[in-house]
Amino acid sequence: MSSLVCALSGEPPREPVVCKATGRLFERSLIMKHLADSQTCPISNEPMTADDLVELKANPAVRPRTQSVNSVPVMLQTLQNEWDNMMLESFELKKNLDTARQQLSQSLYQYDAACRVIARITKERDDMRSALEQAQQRLKEGNFTNSQTGSNGMESDSAATGLPDAVKQTVSKTGAELLQGRKKRAVPEGTAEGESFASYKEASTIKCGRSALTAAGTNVSQPSAITVGANNGDVVFVNLEDGSHESKKAHKGAVSDIAVSSSISLSGGADGIVKLWKDNDCAHSFDSVSSSVAGVSVHPSESFAAVASQDGAASFVDLASGASLASYSAQPSSTLHFHPDGMLLGFGGADGVVRMWDVKAETVALSFNVGGANVDCLQFSENGYHIGTVSGGTAKVWDLRKLAKSGGSAPALRELSVASASSIAFDYTGQFIAVSGSDGKLCVVQNKTWADLASFQGHKKSLLAAGFGSRAASLYDVSSDCSIKVYSA
């Protein structure tokens, strides 16, 4: 019997089979598993198939326990080994379970985040559809141009003629050229870094007569030359680099607003007169509004200008002839400013609403509420899509793209943390924002990051305006105390 053992396991087989080719004895289950993988004899490597196996008839018997596990110590060792194997298997199972739980948790988190993103995008899509439907409905009803509805607050008084085609062509040509140039514009080499403003100190003070200053204007392309207006009607032309200034008598009452372009300046007074200045001399005088001038702005082409009065009238004036090109009835405005491309004209209303007037279409393209009773200041960034407003002592920065997409309902990008703000201005690159306050304080803020870069307390009285020098290498502010202060490193 000792020889009747399986050639593979070395133990007596329960279902013995013999290979006809080799004569070797095998356990059926073991040899069949081997033949499933290899058609050779596991001992001699000779060719072998299941057909070569012959089953042996054997009396069933209980297999005796091998000699090695008959003693108690060996049995205990065997049990210990089994226990160790079970513990190892249990550890592996727990480890795999923990890994599966982590993977499931990560998958559930990603699923939840995806659901929230989808919900937000769906809501934005629905809001856009709703805004589009409302805009289409207003267009169908004529609410953009019909003053009877009061939806835009502006109506053309020259609807039959409107702006001449030549003017519209000038607007289109100038807008296309400026838009193309702005896209290719790079930050000028040597432009100041944000952290450099903290080292700026007061460099000079320029006194501009004895009468309180009431208005100021500058142009980003010529930041060293600014024009200010006084309460006694004088207009003062100031060179910030050498501190020189020249005063000219301009209006019978206070100067209410000043606009400066690359080669000309406009001044508007409480007497309702608008004057055009070239080389510090008055070239033309226009009587284009019926009451005190609230705001003036020169189109980038320098061929015409916009004038708004405090009684709500607004008009476009040809700067060569002084003739009125078109006039409009509008909500009383406190300020106005052309977009850098000249395609839009922003009106800041006494009702706290900013209205974007499409110059070519002669209609309000967009309006939004700044959240105050009166829009005190309105300025566009040279990048073309940021706009700064001051209302009720609060300065805000808006994105025209988001406002256009939302129909004017988009919130401000940022409400700047400057107390008692009175004016706002962007530098040439649009990276920095200067905010002046009625408390005489000037603050500089980094655009987009909204970091407070520096602040200056150079005056005790209210500031009218502030701005940046060439490449932001200097700052200046204009105060009602008849002085201008310049700050630099």
Broad structural category: alpha+beta
| 3D shape | elongated
**How many β strands by DSSP?**
32
- As a percent range, the share of helical residues equals 10-25%
Largest sheet: 5 strands, antiparallel
How is the largest sheet built, in terms of strand order? 4-17-16-15-14
**Could you give the distance between the termini?**
108 Å
The portion of residues forming beta strands comes to 35-45%
Q: How large is the radius of gyration? A: 43 Å
DSSP summary: helix tally: 4
Q: List segments where confidence is low: pLDDT < 50 over at least 5 consecutive residues.
A: 142-151
Average per-residue pLDDT, rounded, comes to: 86
In a nutshell, what does this entry contain?
The chain is an alpha+beta fold and 489 residues long. The chain is built from 4 helices and 32 strands. The strands form 8 sheets. The protein has a 5-stranded antiparallel beta sheet with strand order 4-17-16-15-14, with no helix packed on it.
